[in-house]
Amino acid sequence: MKWIRPDSPDYDPARKVFNAMIDRRPAVIAQCSNDADVAEALRYGRENSLAIAVRAGGHSVAGMSMNNDGLVIDVRPMKSIDVDPESGIVTVGAGVTWGEFDHATQEHALAVTGGRASTTGVAGFTLGGGSGWLERSFGFACDSLVSVDLVTADGERVTASARENPELFWALHGGGGNFGVATSFTFQAHRLGPVVHAGFWLWPGEAATDVSRAFRDLALAAPDGVGLGLLYFTAPPEPFVPEHLVGKMATLIVYVYAGEPEEGSEHARPFRELGPAVDLVGDTPYSEFNGSLDDPPDHYNYWSADYHDELPDAALDLFVESARNLPDATSQQLIARWGGAVGGNAGAATPLNNRNAAWVSHPYGISPTPEEGQLAKAWVKDFRGKIAPYATGGVWLNFIGNEGQERIRAAFGNGNYARLARVKRDFDPRNVFQGNQNILPAGS
Question: What Pfam families does the entry give (predicted)?
């Protein structure tokens, strides 16, 4: 256990999270290496009446892993990774990132749906559901859970699985950090790689309308093994970008096939026939692909999201219009294709609402300065208002900031929210863990 206070030289690095918009100053940070450390930190928090936040990857865009004047339980030292190559069972500590997870599992051609940014922590990502490029094949990260170990507000270590504390296990499939401090996750990994057919194609901005409509139609027809996203952004000054496109609005299709590379190449053919200006789709290590679109560090982030059953031309025109008015050179718009293992009967095992949505839209304000960050925040909110007629309800909580109880309830639906509230009452009746997308205990 390492205690870090404001007078420590380690304090500023320890309180820094990925979103530069978050600048919070806790009274103390407890860096925990095991369950006993977590229980001790919770006891200290109780005795000193401190608000508690839990920090793993620190990738919450709302900064929920940090607080002011409270206690932050930092589980990043929990870096254990155990992989059984034969069974595919993978157990990791709560401080592991998806880049570290992929590196360890891909040595044995195993994978779980991980974050679209490899710097995302396994813990918060999975507890929030876990949406990533492999979801159409393997479901969300939480769908691959076998068990979770956590420490409750009273310092008790419990295990949640299909057999042990099954109602808590259900709640941990998207209910976030509401129920305790997760310290260990066990997954049933899937066979993949280490080489996959993946990458992206890039078109100039003037092709955005045609590419958007073609992408929609081809994505709807693509097999479940194909993971897809359509990204609108400003072409960066990278070696792969033709000089005449740098600094201009561009359209990107992200592609990965969760199967044999030869099959992936064949399924990629209809997209390639759209004639991209840049073609970087090919046989590549999965672990490299899944880190290729990491968010830039030290930027001011404001995000939101919506679900869509359909994206008619008029809706796609709104995306293109929004992309032509990006607030800065690093903000982006993403449309991700759902379906496959995301929907169907999978939703019954999780509290997540509207898993049968066909699409998720995700405007990212990612700005290099505070001033531009405020402009990006206004841009995100403006787009959400315009796209609202085409949204179908529900939201992916890991994709949004602090948007209030109405959005939290929309993420689960009234019935699932009520059930989650009962689990919250059973495991955290005093709402000790409220530094999250907070579920209020039943009866509170």
Answer: BBE (PF08031), FAD_binding_4 (PF01565)
Query: At 394, is the pLDDT very low, low, confident or very high (cuts 50, 70, 90)?
Result: confident
Q: Can you give the residue ranges of every domain in the chain? A: 2-74, 81-192+418-427, 195-399
What dihedral do alpha carbons 7, 13, 19, 21 form, nearest 10°?
Answer: 30
Query: At residue 147, what is the residue type?
Result: S
**Could you tell me if 56 and 76 are in contact, meaning their C-beta atoms sit under 8 angstroms apart?**
yes
Question: 338-391 pLDDT, tens per residue?
Answer: 999 998 765 568 999 999 999 999 999 999 999 999 999 999 999 999 999 999
Separation CA 132–CA 362 (nearest Å): 13
Asked whether the beta carbons of 32 and 41 are under 8 A apart, the reply is: yes
CATH number among 3.90.180.10, 3.30.43.10, 3.30.1130.10, 3.40.50.300, domain 2-74:
3.30.43.10
Taking only the tens place, the pLDDT of each residue in 266-291 is 999 999 999 999 999 999 999 999 98
pLDDT on residue 346: 59
Domain 195-399 is found in CATH 3.40.462.20: yes
What is the bridge-based pairing of β-strands 157-161 and 81-83? Answer: unpaired
CB atoms within 10 A of CB 181: 28
Q: CATH fold of 81-192+418-427, please?
A: 3.30.465
Q: pLDDT digit string (tens) for 228-238?
A: 999 999 999 99
Greatest alpha-carbon span in the chain: 64
Task: Give Cβ neighbours of residue 335 (< 8 Å, ≥ 6 apart).
Answer: 215, 229, 230, 231, 311, 319, 359, 360, 361, 362
Beta strands 332-337 and 226-234 are antiparallel
Please count the CA atoms within 13 angstroms of the CA of 231 that sit on its side-chain side: 19
Question: Residue 345's pLDDT is what?
Answer: 62
> Under a CB-based contact definition with an 8 Å cutoff, are residues 263 and 211 in contact?
no
Q: Choose among 379, 442, 413: nearest CA to 174.
A: 413
> What is the 3-class SS of 25-78, one letter each residue?
CCCEEEECCCHHHHHHHHHHHHHCCCCEEEECCCCCCCCCCCCCCCEEEECCCC
Query: String of b and e for 219-258 (b: at least 16 CB within 10 Å)?
Result: beebebbbbbbbbbbbbeeeeebeeebeeebbbbbbbbbb
At 99 the three-state DSSP class reads helix
